[in-house]
Write a structure and sequence with these properties.
By secondary structure, this protein is mainly α. The protein folds into two domains: 59 residues, Winged helix-like DNA-binding domain superfamily/Winged helix DNA-binding domain (Arc Repressor Mutant, subunit A); 50 residues, Diphtheria Toxin Repressor, domain 2 (Orthogonal Bundle), CATH 1.10.60. Helix content is 70%, strand content 5%. The chain contains six helices and two strands. Strands 1-2 form a two-stranded antiparallel sheet. Helix 1 crosses helix 2, helix 4 crosses helix 5 and helix 4 crosses helix 6. The longest helix has 23 residues.
Length: 120
Amino acid sequence: MKRNKSTEDYLECILLLSNETEFVHRVDVARRMKVSQPAVQKAVKILTDSQFVECDGLHIYLTAEGRKYAERVYDRHVTIRGFLERLGVNGQDADADACEMEHVISAETFRAIKNFMKGN
């Protein structure tokens, strides 16, 4: 599957919210991502059609496939952020840069960074 920044950002946001609270609402996603509720509505439809989330009308739930994908995205984010911080980048910049890099980094480069971080 081709990676899509918007899809990955929404999945990561839903994952983090679902780790914080029992129920994820569209308004929570909109607030966290600083986007409009119609934008979230459109994204949720795409995520539902892709079978990454399910909705019961009020709440958003990650499917098993959606959770697995979101966890991979979040792992890339955390690993890259840690790598950048290790290089001396301040936390705020490392987090912002990791958010961009997580979507474009090759599997080979990510593996190398992950192995480096495990070894140090």
